[in-house]
Amino acid sequence: MAEPQAHAAAHADEHDHKPHGWRRWVYATNHKDIGTMYLVFACTMFFIGGAMAMVIRLELFKPGLQFVDPQFFNSMTTMHALIMIFGAVMPGWTGLANWMIPMQVGAPDMALPRLNNFSFWILPFAFTLLISSLFVPGGAPAGGWTMYPPLILQTGASFPMLIFAVHLMGASSILGAINVVVTIMNMRAPGMTLLRMPLFVWSWLITAYLLIAVMPVLAGAVTMLLTDHFFGTTFFTAAGGGDPVMFQHIFWFFGHPEVYILILPAFGIVSEIIPTFSRKPLFGYETMVYAVASIAFLSFIVWAHHMFTVGMPLAAQLFFMLSTMLIAVPTGVKVFNWTATMWKGSLSFEPPMLFALAFLFLFTIGGFSGLMLAMVPADYQYQDTYFVVAHFHYVLVPGAIFAMMAGVYYWLPKWTGRMYDQKLATWHFWLSTIFVNVLFFPQHFLGLAGMPRRIPDYAVQFTDWNMVSSIGAFGFGLSQLLFPYIIIKCIRAGQPIGNRAWEGAHGLEWELPSPPPYHSWTTPPSDAVIARGAAH
Amino acid sequence: MAQHGSLPVTVSPGPVDEAGRRRRVRRTAILFAVIAAAFYLGFIALMLLRGAK
Q1: pLDDT tens digits, one per residue of A364-388
Q2: Quick one: which of A446, B11, B26, B39 could link to A451 by a disulfide (CB 3.0–4.6 Å)?
Q3: A25 assigned to active site
């Protein structure tokens, strides 16, 4: 063996000593271990946030106050949103990024492993702080996840807990995003050019840029809320010359790109899965990359469509309406390309493909209702109704969450070296898809009929569709219990599989054994293998 | 060397400029950390300037 190889082999051996017990997780620097921790954390938060959604839907099953008082109801809506956005979806994507990016770009690990450990371990502290605010005098924050002043400044003892928790979540996201950018820019195998990268890596690279730009803006906004509350400043207090509407501008300058932070990795995953189960290369790879980049750019210039009703000049309303509608163009390109990929393909419908197809249909419904909301005169009618709730839940549940489940079902055999119970996963798919529509579709009707959001009680004419929606919620919530069961069953007793779990799968991760070695690519993949994996 | 079909899956590592890569990693990380800090402080500074008018 030549000298450099001998050195490399010795080096790899030295690092393949996998730590055991609690030290493996607390001191984790391995991208797969950290990815696993992120995914377990996200799944836990998904069920905690889901339990809060059940409380909300239970209370709304029929008119009148049934189970909880209005203050607690508002805490549930606020906490549900914060936990699902910052605790379930964002860490879920980061978990998938940790697992897959090094394997997909031909790197042995993330570029900054200790930072990776730190950015994960911030999260349990942040969410313990946030959730424990339920038990302080005055209860958990109840002013909505958007934290609008002056309402949020009326929060009791939980206010500083909320602000500190949001700061911690932001710090974790920024550190994670820096790690992703640095890894993709510096750790790619020789020959893995930018336009050979899988779409999931591309979508995460762009997501990471968004995170680095907007999470500090949220941190700045909540810092100013903190100083308004405790240090006598009046950034957002009208009595002192401040401007509460300015908070909304700053918040949504973060908040709209945040929507794309939640959905862009979903685009990446669906772009991996549809070609695999269509047994065809992705249609229009480069246009997909440009479409993701265009969506990310446009996300910075549309923020005020969330606040048309605060009052703004006509020119501003027109600008934000038209720039928002412009997003339909790159999004349409993506939907067209996914459809064109399937055209005349040799399709099969395994669980990842089923979830990806449901994403395609149902996310598009969320996109269309978004276009309706973009129209200023129509938005005046829809503002703060259940139509908005239906819209963003279609984007985030059968959008982001379904794509994440598709990703887990796609890569789980690679991670574990075992195939899961596909029949049970198909049951999970059908139950989820039926109930998610029973849950959210009637909310469009409720919103159009004028039912406001964030209320624990409602007029009797809204009863029927609320009952249907709640039945859908209970069904959806129960059917999600299948998800961890399928994963645990797979880890314990799944059938062993080879390197390539799916016949049509391409990409570097499928060249590695299943499960992959502790360090993925200690020697870089050959150019021929990279070229084969990148056959877009 | 691992094999898949007729293609060699991995290649022997050539002379790797490990120090250069570490320097690039550090430089990229610091650059993006500075950008993040600039966004944080920049928005607060903008609000302060707006209030001072």
Answers
A1: 999 999 999 999 999 999 999 999 9
A2: A446
A3: no
